[in-house]
Amino acid sequence: MLSRINTAAVYGLDALAVSVETDITRGLPGFYIVGLADVTVKEARERIRSAVLNSKCEFPMERIVINIAPADIRKKGSCLDLPMAIGILAGTHQIMTDELKDWCFMGELSLDGKIRRVSGLLPMLTVLEERGIRRAVVPYDNRKEAALLSKIEIYPARNLKDVVEAFNMRKPLKRQMHSKNIEGVESKPGFDFSEVKGRENAKRAIMIAVAGGHGLLMTGTPSTGKTMLAERIPTIMPPMSFEEIMEVTKIYSSAGLLDEKRQFITERPYRNPHHNITGVSLTGGGIIPKPGEITLAHKGVLFLDELAEFRRDTIDLLRQPLEEKKIAISRLEHKYVYPADFLLIAASNPCKCGYYGDEEKECTCTASEIQKYRGKISGPVMDRIDLHIRLHNIKYDELKDRRGMSSERMRKTIVAARDLQRERFAKLFRSEKFSLNGNLGIRQVDKVIILGRKEESFLQAAYERYMLNPRVLFKIKKVARTIADIAGREDVRTEDLSEAIQYREEASR
Predict the structure, then answer these.
(1) Which of 123, 141, 168 is the last residue of a domain?
(2) What domain range includes position 214?
(3) Across-strand partners of 157?
């Protein structure tokens, strides 16, 4: 008898709707899996055989052929174990088949019939939901992740025996209700900006960076607090919306980074890769590419400490994602496009020894060594980073200052500034997806930032004096727009442009 079971397979960050066709006929006993199946799928034969027998069902001693359609795309992953087992049981009339066409199944089987959690469940269910499937049997350990979807009924199962009994009308599976109240939460890593003394200018730059989605490079001698400041940025990031939670959770699900304790992502990601990271690990790679650090930082923060210690070719890979907020990876005949809308925060020493420009300790580097060290960060990458600040050693009196901004105060200012951006964007670009100031395109900037004669003259003078290029000028305008939003003003003034230009001066030194 021929049976068809609905399921899906992970394909990069997305998923592919799959039909498991099972044909059981008389002949020499054999178990064949076709349809461009990966090794992990073909290994399922022995798992399925043992799981069926240990679930008090019969395994047919006949010729079994399973086709995983479509046959022209490679399928991988153990999530196909359960649908193949259900196909065999349906083909041998051990399970009622009347309603199977409206259901989908996914899960890995252990030898005793238990259903194990799988990676990529959320994107798989999403693609099946779009195909009109309205009921799904999923691993019990994936139940909370699956419940993020509202248009498909979720029925978690612990083992194969429970599924068989449910479809034979003996003991129904309990439905997992949709998670309606999932909200983004504020990160609480145990840090607070109030602990950082004497760095109010740096806090100001960080607040502008987070409010408008502007990249930030902090340059300074060792022990000036660059890493300390970066570690506290998650405490001022606004909570994620439900749509952002779904987006980020899909990425982490496909990457296999969810587990029973963390079934969805509600805090904005904070990624801090080591400077020895390879380009593949940063951008993503593999035959079917897995997401790299820039995609895992989507909607969150990517902190690159000791930026000049990274390989130059690795740093240059940031060009496309910083500009387009996505990364394109080509493999054989297919091109994968992964999201990479992250806030870049970078830190670097001014030279190899770390003390170039220090007022107290003399730099031991030669001019050529300084040039070589700084040359690791190319001009195009520097241009794409909106804010550049220099941190100097703090005086003793500054350490006693207790009036520093706290994370709570900074976060409230950032949320208010983002609300202004959202209202303005909705008014000017009703049919477009919201973008922070740092992500605005040329056409959008011309509508969002309207300068008066005084401001235009000031900007022209700065352009000629500092020998700026059009890209840097474009960045300055967007930073000035964010500075005005932080002040609660709609008009961009000369002082806003002046402050924005100051954040470019360090890049030209």
Answers:
(1) 168
(2) 184-405
(3) 139
- What share of the chain in percent tops pLDDT 90? 79
Look at residue 267 and give its three-state secondary structure: coil
d(CA 2, CA 69): 14
217 and 342 together in one domain:
yes
**Within this chain, do residues 317 and 376 fall inside the same structural domain, yes or no?**
yes
Q: Is the pLDDT of residue 509 over 60?
A: no
pLDDT in tens, 341-350: 999 999 999 9
Residues 386 and 414 in one domain: no
Residue 303 shares a structural domain with residue 412: no
Its sign, for the CA torsion 404, 405, 407, 408, is positive
- Reference 148, options 243, 283, 83; nearest CA is 243
Q: Where are the beta strands (DSSP E) in 127-264?
A: 135-139, 153-157, 216-220
pLDDT tens digits for range 256-286: 999 888 888 999 999 999 999 999 999 998 7
Domain contains 177: no
Distance CA 50, CA 44 (A): 10
Q: What's the pTM?
A: 0.92
The answer to whether residue 173 is domain-embedded is no
Amino acid at 217: L
Read off the amino acid at residue 266. Answer: T
> How many CB atoms are closer than 10 A to CB 280?
15
